[in-house]
Amino acid sequence: MIRQYEARSDDGGVTVTVDGGSRVAGVRIGEHAIRSGPDRLAAGITVAVNKALEAARQGATESMLDAVAPESQALIRGAIGAANAGLAAAAAEEAGAQTVRARSGDGSVTVTANGLGVIVSITLSPAAVRASGDGPARLGASAAEAVNAALGQAGSLRRVQLSAGAGPAPAPGDPRSAGSAALTRLSERMNDLLGTLDQIDRDLDDLVDNTVSDLTRLADQLPGHGDTGGSDGS
């Protein structure tokens, strides 16, 4: 069963569900949130989406750590925490410098995200917010569509930056740009490391099981093994 994470806007009018792959599975908008107007509603969706995405990222990290030996978890958790803190600082310094934008198919929702997968802003069409009937459900679906498209573009942007050495060369004497690039690479390598450790742990379990089976079969083949009868005395 795919794990899901849920978060709400500060006023409780918007609920966002994100799956374990950091993809928005649903956006539920309450009637009173619809009546709050496009700007306030957009801000609420932005808050709820980012909360749910962060919960999904933390859940993924915990799942990976569960597959690591207990004595290694503290070390890896500390490294992840340091890397995430550095990336957050870098994002704050360079807000808006590296962003992507996506729009829902009906044009009612426009989402801007940065290369770290954080939703920077959401813009809603006033006409879509005024829609009645199934308006909230339709707008929620459009919001989920636009957010997922933006997150996909953000992921592509990040991969391009990493393959190119995390973007253009930093200006001479500017250690912050170099530090941001290094932290981004560290975060990416940490994710790879956790995946590798997870696979190693599974491989070790398989090795132990196979070794026990082989030893059992070998013991069964040894002369006299399992012979409970004594000498016939002749």
What does this 3D model show about the protein?
- The protein has 234 residues and is of the alpha+beta class.
- It has one domain: 2-Layer Sandwich (Ybab, Chain: A), CATH 3.30.1310.
- It has six helices and six strands; from the N terminus they run βββαααβββααα.
- The strands form two sheets. The chain has a three-stranded antiparallel β-sheet. A three-stranded antiparallel β-sheet has the order 4-5-6.
- Strand 4 (99-103) and strand 5 (109-114) form a beta hairpin.
- Helix 3 packs antiparallel against helix 6 (175-221).
- The longest helix has 47 residues, at 175-221.
- The relative contact order is 0.12.
- Mean pLDDT is 76; it is low at 166-170 and 172-179.
In short:
The protein is α+β, with helices and mostly antiparallel strands. It has helices spanning 31-34, 38-66, 70-93, 126-130, 135-163, 175-221, and strands at residues 4-8, 14-19, 24-29, 99-103, 109-114, 119-124.
What is the secondary structure topology, with strand pairs?
Blueprint: E1 4-8, E2 14-19, E3 24-29, H1 31-34, H2 38-66, H3 70-93, E4 99-103, E5 109-114, E6 119-124, H4 126-130, H5 135-163, H6 175-221
Antiparallel strand pairs: 1-2, 2-3, 4-5, 5-6
Helix pairs in contact: 3-6
List descriptors.
alpha+beta; 234 residues; Ybab, Chain: A; elongated; 15% strand; three-stranded antiparallel beta sheet; single chain
